[in-house]
Structures are given as structure tokens and as C-alpha cells.
Design goal:
By secondary structure, the protein is α+β, with helices and mostly antiparallel strands. The protein has 2 domains: about 50 residues, 2-Layer Sandwich (Signal recognition particle alu RNA binding heterodimer, srp9/1); about 120 residues, Signal recognition particle alu RNA binding heterodimer, srp9/1, CATH 3.30.720.110. About 25% of the residues lie in helices and about 20% in strands. It has 7 helices and 9 strands, in the order H-E-H-E-E-E-E-H-E-E-E-H-H-E-H-H. A hairpin with a 7-residue loop joins strand 3 and strand 4. Helix 3 packs across helix 6. The protein is globular. The chain starts with 7 loop residues before the first helix and ends in a 16-residue tail after the last helix. The protein binds fe (ii) ion. The site of fe (ii) ion has 3 residues, from strand 5.
């Protein structure tokens, strides 16, 4: 059952706690750090995928940067780590947003031609998303917003369509790329088709 989205000012308000202390949220999400036993391969992969450069790198640590932040991803070398088993708690993925559908799909094309392919392309509704697995199996999501404003995207979270299917609809990235290059408008390409009810059990989660 869909409900009304909270007003933007309510979402943005930090308020005070029960002791009257002001609650201050962080200014931004800064970075994440991965530990690995295949250091060079992981550094190469993140540099290639994100178009990042090392702000610092030695034999055991790399800080990768691609924007105003000094590092968005850091890789830490540790010997003899065990592979990640499925079915354990932890981070499912980290997501990176592109400015336009063309930026996202041009990145898809560039990576595809290097043999790096998404493991899970899906239109969530609020975003068109390509999930990739790094050499250690950690997943990242490359995405573009499907709506022009945060209010429209939030409204979608509270829609009947999202209540019925909060997961999304898979798509063929080569087909989307072809349609994009043929000049179909972004709004049409980003619109999530209606395929009825779906739940977490319908998708492959690692
Ligand atoms: Fe995500």
C-alpha cells in the first residue's frame, strides 16, 4: 500500500535528541576501504572502472581519487586473506552515480570492450543501475538517477509501483545502448517497465 512521502523539510531536519542535543549528520559520504590479497589487480580494476588515479600508492596502500575528494576508494594489501563466502552478513554493494544516461552507458561500453561486464543490470525505478563484481567479488553499482529531482525520486519510493516491486526490472545493456545511440529520449529509456509483483527472492543476492 503506497503512502505519502514525507515532506522534504522533514527529511532534511536533523532535530534534537531526547537530551536536547542537536543531532548533526555528516556532510557527505567520504570513502570506503577494501582489504585484499590481490592488491595490484584490485587497484587496476578500480582505476579502470572509476577512471580514478592514485592520490597515494605504495606497496600496501592505495588511495584512489577521481573528483574533489582526496580519496573515494582505498585498497589495503593484506597477505593470505580467505575468499568471501556467500551467505554472510556485510556490505552488499557501494554505488557510484553518473550525471547522465549517456555517461553511464558510455562507461558500460568502454568497460565491456575491456572484458569487464556487469553481473546484474537492473532498472530499480529511481535509478538505472549496472552492478559489477570486482576481482574479490565485492559488488559496486554504477547508476544514473531516473528522475530529475530528489523529490520526484522520493515520490517514486512511496508509489504503488514501488510498493509492488521494490526490486526493479532487469534489462539488456547492449539493447539500451543501441536505443540510446539511435536517439530514443532518456525519459523513455529510463522509465521502468511494469512487470508486476517482485520481492527479494526474485533476484540473485550474494
Ligand atoms: Fe544500490
Amino acid at each position: 500500500m503506497a503512502v505519502d512521502a514525507p515532506a522534504r523539510e522533514d527529511r532534511a531536519k536533523h532535530g534534537k535528541n531526547a537530551q536536547g542535543r542537536e543531532i548533526i549528520s555528516p556532510e557527505r559520504l567520504a570513502h570506503f576501504v577494501l582489504r585484499t590479497s590481490r592488491f595490484e589487480e584490485m587497484v587496476d580494476w578500480y582505476q579502470t572502472v572509476l577512471g580514478a588515479r592514485p592520490a597515494f600508492k605504495n606497496d600496501i596502500l592505495a588511495f584512489l581519487s577521481y573528483d574533489e575528494e582526496h580519496h573515494r576508494v582505498a585498497i589495503l594489501a593484506m597477505p593470505d586473506l580467505k575468499p568471501q563466502p556467500d551467505g554472510v552478513v556485510g556490505v552488499h554493494h557501494n554505488a557510484f552515480a553518473y550525471a547522465t544516461l549517456d555517461d553511464l552507458m558510455s562507461t558500460y561500453e568502454r568497460l565491456r570492450d575491456l572484458g569487464i561486464k556487469p553481473v546484474f543490470p537492473i532498472n530499480h525505478g529511481p535509478t538505472t543501475s549496472l552492478y559489477y563484481a570486482d576481482p574479490d567479488g565485492n559488488q559496486i553499482e554504477l547508476q544514473v538517477d531516473n528522475y530529475d529531482s530528489i523529490d520526484e525520486a522520493t515520490a517514486f519510493f512511496y508509489s504503488e509501483a514501488f510498493a509492488e516491486n521494490p526490486i526493479g526490472v532487469e534489462f539488456d545493456p547492449d539493447d539500451l545502448l543501441r536505443r540510446l545511440r539511435a536517439g530514443e529520449p532518456d525519459e523513455e529509456l529510463k522509465r521502468r517497465p511494469d512487470i508486476g509483483k517482485r520481492g527479494v527472492a526474485d533476484i540473485k543476492l550474494r
